[in-house]
Amino acid sequence: MPTRKPLSPKQPSVEPRAPDGGDSVVLERRTQRVKPPRMFQVVMFNDDYTPMEFVVVVLQEFFSKDREAATQIMLKIHLDGKAVCGVYSQDVAATKVTQVMDAARHAGHPLQCESEPVE
Fold first, then answer.
1. At 29, is the secondary structure helix, strand, or coil?
2. What Rg do the C-alpha atoms of the chain give, in angstroms?
3. What distance in Å separates the CA atoms of residue 81 and residue 43, rounded to the nearest whole number?
4. Which DSSP category does 14 fall into?
5. Banded pLDDT at 108 (limits 50, 70, 90)
6. Which of 17, 57, 98, 106 reaches 20 to 30 Å from 35, CA-CA?
7. What is the pLDDT of residue 14?
8. pLDDT at residue 2 is higher than 80
9. SS3 per residue for 33-83
10. CB neighbourhood size of 39 (10 A)
11. How far apart are CA 63 and CA 58, in angstroms?
12. Rounded to whole angstroms, how far apart are CA atoms 68 and 56?
C-alpha cells in the first residue's frame, strides 16, 4: 500500500484574454448539401418480332412486376412504340438493360432496351 498521496498532473497555465482581443478564431460548421443520385429510366422499345408473352415474362423477371402490371406495360410498348419499365440509379438501370438484352439475345429476339436520364 502506498503511503504517499499521488500527485495530480500539472495544468498548463492559461492567461485570460480580452473578449475583443482580435486574436481568437471562430470556426463555423457548415452542413454540406449532397444531391441525391441522378435517376435513370429503363425504356423498352417495340418491334414486330418479339412475342408479347416474352416481354411480359421479362418485365416480371427483371423488373419485379406482377402479371397485370407487366401486361399493361407490354401493351403500352406495343401501342406507343416504347414504355418506361422502371426508374433506378445509373448502375442499377445499366444492369437491368444488360439483363434484358442478354435474355432477348439468348431467346433469339431482337428486343431493344436502353436507359436514359430522368429529367
1. coil
2. 32
3. 10
4. -
5. very high
6. 98
7. 59
8. no
9. CCCCCCEEEEEEECCCCCCHHHHHHHHHHHHCCCHHHHHHHHHHHHHHCEE
10. 15
11. 7
12. 9
> What's the pLDDT tens digit per position in 36-80?
889 999 999 999 999 999 999 999 999 999 999 999 999 999 999
CA neighbor of 72 nearest in space, from 89, 55, 88: 55
Q: How confident is the model at residue 31 (pLDDT cuts 50, 70, 90)?
A: confident
Cell numbers that stand for 28 in this block:
463555423
Could you tell me which of 86, 100, 99, 98 has the C-alpha nearest to residue 39? Answer: 86
Domains along the chain?
49-117 (3.30.1390.10)
- For the entire predicted model, the pTM comes to 0.71
Written as nine digits, the cell of 98 is: 444488360
Task: Identify the sign of the CA torsion 62, 68, 73, 77.
Answer: positive
